């Protein structure tokens, strides 16, 4: 997991605010109440007030303007947050496992621990926050490296003793510089496979294993080639061939519907389409995660509205 010493923030003053000040803001975000305009990574909320707070205990300035709505509404939000925090089965040390997961790729980024204050801070700031057992204090992932994990949602498991921060990382999560903290394969170790560098062996799902393989094929093109190139390399070297195959595979995929072909044919043709389109993404230096991010951003927008708002094509 990332080292708290790399991404550590003193939380002495913040912990004091968690007794009540920060609670209403957290659920205000979820209920669409634009209660805060945040100019830093801390959030403070006082009932019925607008103020700016400067924290000089650690030479940081936090400027937070808070304009609350009705006091009784804030109390209701605070009660709801307390109810959620109370429902977590904290262990004897007041901790629960907290896992960060990439909202687009599904990759498990890291695992740490959270206490009540860390979870409340994450809800309020939407920055993944953990509890450092070695330092006995909160730490925000990315405080030092700036590789924050921007939290989109939080999930509790069925037993309510572990937490998932579902978010988008700003950069590599691991302190080694790897995309995630999980790059050591137990099965490879048992099979006496050589341990590779952290960026080359990540815990990848099927889709991203394919993408990783395609990326390696592209990298191999810079080295002298022996024998006939693989199909992937041929596609990477010939734009016309690549585009021709994408159009052909897309047509075959559509015909499985038009001609009422067997479902297995539809799945097979879709796999062909996906493979060839991913080769084009690699050819352009893009990742499939970029596509998923665009799709996620469209969830709250109608297809017609999205299309009308698209930028005009730019031909280089």
From TrEMBL:
Catalytic activity, reaction form: 1-(5-phospho-beta-D-ribosyl)-5'-AMP + H2O = 1-(5-phospho-beta-D-ribosyl)-5-[(5-phospho-beta-D-ribosylamino)methylideneamino]imidazole-4-carboxamide; 1-(5-phospho-beta-D-ribosyl)-ATP + H2O = 1-(5-phospho-beta-D-ribosyl)-5'-AMP + diphosphate + H(+)
Key words, A-Z: Amino-acid biosynthesis, ATP-binding, Histidine biosynthesis, Hydrolase, Multifunctional enzyme, Nucleotide-binding
Domain Phosphoribosyl-AMP cyclohydrolase, first and last residues per copy: 110-183
CDD domains reported in the protein's UniProt record: NTP-PPase_HisIE_like
Hydrolase as UniProt keyword: yes
Involved pathway(s): Amino-acid biosynthesis; L-histidine biosynthesis; L-histidine from 5-phospho-alpha-D-ribose 1-diphosphate: step 2/9; Amino-acid biosynthesis; L-histidine biosynthesis; L-histidine from 5-phospho-alpha-D-ribose 1-diphosphate: step 3/9
Statement: the UniProt record of this protein carries the keyword Aminoacyl-tRNA synthetase: no
GO biological process assignments: L-histidine biosynthetic process
Source species, domain of life: Eukaryota
Entries under InterPro entries matching the protein: HisE, PRib-ATP_PPHydrolase-like, PRib_AMP_CycHydrolase_dom, PRib_AMP_CycHydrolase_sf
Coiled coil: none
Gene Ontology molecular function: ATP binding; phosphoribosyl-AMP cyclohydrolase activity; phosphoribosyl-ATP diphosphatase activity
Family matches, as Pfam families: PRA-CH, PRA-PH
PANTHER family xrefs: HISTIDINE BIOSYNTHESIS BIFUNCTIONAL PROTEIN, HISTIDINE BIOSYNTHESIS BIFUNCTIONAL PROTEIN HIS7
NCBIfam families per record: histidine_hisI (TIGR03188)
Official protein name in the record: Phosphoribosyl-AMP cyclohydrolase domain-containing protein
Organism of origin: Lactuca virosa
């Amino acid at each position: 997991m990332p080292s708290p010493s790399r991404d550590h923030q003193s939380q002495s003053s913040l912990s004091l605010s968690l007794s009540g000040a920060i609670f209403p803001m957290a659920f205000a975000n979820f209920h669409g109440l634009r209660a805060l305009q945040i100019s830093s990574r801390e959030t403070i909320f006082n009932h019925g007030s607008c103020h700016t707070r400067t924290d000089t205990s650690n030479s940081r300035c936090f400027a937070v303007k808070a304009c609350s709505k009705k006091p009784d509404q804030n109390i209701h939000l605070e009660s709801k947050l307390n109810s959620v925090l109370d429902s977590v089965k904290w262990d004897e040390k007041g901790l629960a496992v907290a896992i960060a997961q990439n909202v687009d790729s599904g990759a498990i980024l890291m695992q740490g621990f959270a206490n009540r204050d860390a979870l409340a801070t994450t809800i309020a700031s939407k920055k993944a926050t953990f509890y450092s057992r070695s330092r006995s204090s909160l730490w925000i992932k990315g405080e030092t490296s700036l590789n924050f994990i921007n939290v989109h949602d939080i999930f509790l498991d069925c037993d309510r003793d572990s937490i998932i921060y579902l978010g988008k990382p700003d950069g590599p999560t691991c302190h080694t510089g790897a995309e995630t903290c999980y790059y050591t394969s137990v099965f490879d170790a048992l099979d006496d496979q050589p341990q590779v560098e952290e960026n080359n062996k990540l815990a990848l799902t099927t889709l991203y294993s394919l993408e990783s393989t395609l990326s390696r094929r592209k990298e191999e093109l810079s080295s002298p080639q022996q024998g006939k190139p693989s199909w992937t390399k041929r596609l990477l070297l010939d734009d016309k061939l690549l585009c021709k195959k994408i159009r052909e595979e897309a047509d075959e995929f559509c015909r499985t519907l038009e001609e009422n072909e067997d479902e297995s044919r539809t799945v097979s043709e879709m796999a062909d389409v996906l493979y060839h389109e991913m080769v084009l993404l690699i050819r352009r230096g893009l990742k499939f995660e970029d596509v998923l991010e665009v799709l996620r951003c469209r969830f709250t927008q109608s297809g017609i509205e999205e299309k009308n708002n698209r930028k005009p094509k730019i031909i280089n």
